[in-house]
Write a structure and sequence with these properties.
Order of helices and strands: HH
Largest sheet: none
Distance between the termini: 91 Å
Oligomer: single chain
Region (Disordered): 26-47
Helix content: 55-70%
Number of helices: 2
Number of strands: 0
Length: 124
């Protein structure tokens, strides 16, 4: 047995029954028709059309600029890639030179027992 506020009251209507009741209510009392918006004079329509054309032209110009920037970015990416390869080549050459210098230094040490001060190089 229900207690409190629900005591003695009928249970809630099921959702399907509520939807059916709402549909019947709308058939009996339809919503008022919406009136069309007030008509504008042709001058303001032409002005709106011209401003819309100008906006579309600006959007198109921005799109062309973005395409140009995309092309430039692609070129920069390719150039960066080639520079990285070039830097890697230089690093390889430097490494090769370091090995050659080390070989020459070891030959000098073998021949004279010590390095000549002008040939000593501080390398990281």
């Amino acid at each position: 047995m229900p207690r409190g506020k629900t005591a003695g009251k009928a249970p809630c209507k099921p959702a399907r029954q509520l939807l059916f009741s709402e549909a019947l209510r709308q058939q009996k009392y339809p919503a008022p028709a919406v009136s069309p918006p007030p008509s504008h004079d042709t001058m303001s329509d032409n002005t709106q059309g011209a401003s819309m054309d100008r906006i579309l032209q600006e959007i198109s110009a921005v799109g062309r600029k973005l395409e140009g920037m995309d092309t430039a970015m692609s070129a920069l990416t390719a150039e960066t890639r080639s520079m990285r390869l070039e830097i890697a080549g230089f690093q390889s050459q430097i490494s090769g030179l370091d090995h050659r210098v080390a070989a020459v230094e070891s030959q000098v040490v073998k021949r004279s027992g010590t390095l000549v001060p002008s040939q000593q190089v501080n390398r990281p």
